[in-house]
Specification:
It is built from 4 helices and no strands. The longest helix is centred in the first third of the chain and has 11 residues. The chain is elongated, with a radius of gyration of 13 Å. The relative contact order is 0.18.
């Protein structure tokens, strides 16, 4: 997932940065680092991990958390 993908996801979902961070289960500062592509504490580039990309895709598809015994 690229920075532009993450920004697009946030826009598509209609989330503020705070709402997006909360939905993904990360702190706002971490989310802002992803959006900026750089750590505010170290100044080093950061990447958006695969789990976050998959979580965004699942949220767009309106999937709930994984359950071994889904209710049909």
């Amino acid at each position: 997932m690229t920075i532009d993908d993450l920004r697009g996801w946030q826009s598509q979902m209609g989330y503020t940065q705070a709402q997006a961070a909360e939905t993904l289960g990360v702190g706002l500062s971490a989310y802002k680092d992803w959006i900026n592509g750089m750590s505010r504490t170290t100044g080093k580039p950061v990447s958006i991990d695969k789990r976050t990309g998959l979580a965004c895709a699942a949220l767009v598809a309106n999937l709930s958390e994984y359950s071994k015994n889904p209710v049909n």
